[in-house]
């Protein structure tokens, strides 16, 4: 997402966000931009959108185009063809947003809906409260995950009169619930079914009573434990 500052009567600045990154695809499944002249692409984009910020051809043969203004964003999303080549245009799935974390005790009793309503002028498009499991129950915390409609994370936001530093959000490592290894999920796993409790292959952990052993670090704990040294390295 790009952004453009506007200044309302209150004197406080707010931002108008717009998608900055777009994927351009050829309409035919068998055709890509691999065999299209870069001169043709550049001239067509300049004529229909303007002088875009960057254009890059991906390995797939699609084009990744970055624009620098709301006007260019509106122009590019309307494109149906590029130099007589039928195309489709979509905002990039991840490059137009970013996630950060704030910790504000004063917002503990506010609903995430109310917080989102108040922070929306600062390019916040989603608010999620972090909960932790204690004694078998999920307990809400003062920590909030904010999704911003722009790729660059702000250093801080204003929650009313409180200046809140924004930290990058680092998600928990992806662990396969079948093979117990990090870096992939169960649907994409080609590994052997492995117990998350004892690290032995061939059975699940539901009814396992064997001695605990971690598949990843070989420590005396189940593979899903957050005390695992391998989990901490991945995190």
Textual characterization of the structure:
With 235 residues, the chain is of the alpha+beta class. The chain has three domains: 21-91, RRM (RNA recognition motif) domain (Alpha-Beta Plaits), CATH 3.30.70.330; 98-168, no CATH class; 172-234, HIV-1 Nucleocapsid Protein (Irregular), CATH 4.10.60. It has four helices and 13 strands. The protein has helices at residues 38-48, 70-77, 112-119, 229-234; strands spanning 2-6, 14-18, 21-26, 54-57, 63-66, 81-82, 85-91, 98-103, 124-134, 137-148, 156-159, 162-165, 167-168. The chain has a five-stranded antiparallel sheet. A four-stranded antiparallel sheet has the order 9-10-8-13, with helices on one face. The longest helix is centred in the N-terminal third of the chain and has 11 residues, at 38-48. Mean pLDDT is 88; it is low at 6-13.
Topology diagram in text:
Layout: E1 2-6, E2 14-18, E3 21-26, H1 38-48, E4 54-57, E5 63-66, H2 70-77, E6 81-82, E7 85-91, E8 98-103, H3 112-119, E9 124-134, E10 137-148, E11 156-159, E12 162-165, E13 167-168, H4 229-234
Antiparallel strand pairs: 1-2, 3-5, 3-7, 4-5, 6-7, 8-10, 8-13, 9-10, 11-12
Features:
235 residues; alpha+beta; HIV-1 Nucleocapsid Protein; five-stranded antiparallel β-sheet; 4 helices; 13 strands
């Amino acid at each position: 997402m790009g952004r453009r500052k506007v200044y309302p009567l209150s004197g406080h600045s707010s931002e108008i966000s717009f998608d900055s990154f777009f994927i351009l695809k050829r309409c035919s499944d068998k055709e890509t931009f691999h065999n299209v002249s870069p001169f043709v692409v550049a001239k067509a984009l300049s004529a229909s959108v303007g002088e875009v910020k960057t254009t890059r051809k991906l390995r797939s043969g699609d084009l990744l185009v970055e624009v620098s203004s709301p006007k260019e964003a509106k122009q590019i999303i309307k494109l149906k063809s590029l130099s007589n080549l039928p195309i489709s245009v979509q905002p990039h799935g991840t490059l137009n947003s970013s996630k950060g974390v704030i910790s504000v005790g004063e917002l503990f009793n506010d609903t995430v809906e109310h917080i989102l309503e108040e922070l929306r002028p600062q390019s916040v498009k989603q608010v999620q409260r972090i909960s932790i499991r204690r004694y078998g129950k999920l307990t809400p915390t003062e920590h909030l995950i904010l999704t911003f409609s722009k790729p660059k994370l702000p250093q801080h936001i204003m929650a009313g009169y409180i200046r809140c530093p924004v930290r990058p959000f680092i998600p928990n490592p992806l662990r396969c619930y079948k093979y117990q290894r990090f870096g992939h999920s169960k649907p994409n796993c080609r590994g052997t079914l492995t117990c998350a409790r004892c690290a032995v292959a061939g059975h699940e952990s539901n009814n396992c009573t064997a001695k605990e052993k971690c598949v990843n670090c070989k420590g005396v704990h189940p593979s899903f434990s957050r005390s695992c040294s391998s989990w901490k390295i991945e995190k």
